[in-house]
Amino acid sequence: MTEQTNQVNPVDTDIDDPVLRSALGDFRASLHAWSDAAYNRPRPALSSAPQAIAWRRAIGWVLSLILSFGILGTAAYERHHSQIIAQERQHQQDLERQRLADEQRARESAAATDTEDLMAAVDSAVSRQVPAAMAPLALTADEIQ
């Protein structure tokens, strides 16, 4: 530093005391020397930066894993849910098919019963020895014999 910067300008101060001026000049010079030394001293290159980067990287990995597991879990749940719904639909369709088959069998059974009843009626009508109109005469003929 130059000697001019260490001297106190008498215009700036109203102090006429040479001892005080000298003390203030020394204080100013030591303050400038200290700040120059603090400014020009070698500093380590941010030693906490690699630790911060490592933490950020670790947090990034953890968050990405959580996100990935969340997506995979949601996809697995949706697939499982759709399978359950498909099984329920299949069960409903099987029940509907069974109901329709039962109804068809009931209709066929009823038709067979109706056919059997009709055949029995025809059989009884054909197997008569005497036609229905002549039945009273047949009764009297049976009584005569």
From TrEMBL:
Keywords: Membrane, Transmembrane, Transmembrane helix. The chain crosses the membrane at residues 58-77. Residues 88-114 are annotated as: Disordered. Residues 88-108 have a biased composition (Basic and acidic residues). It comes from the Bacteria. The keyword Membrane applies. This is Uncharacterized protein. The lineage of its organism: Bacteria, Pseudomonadati, Acidobacteriota, Terriglobia, Terriglobales.
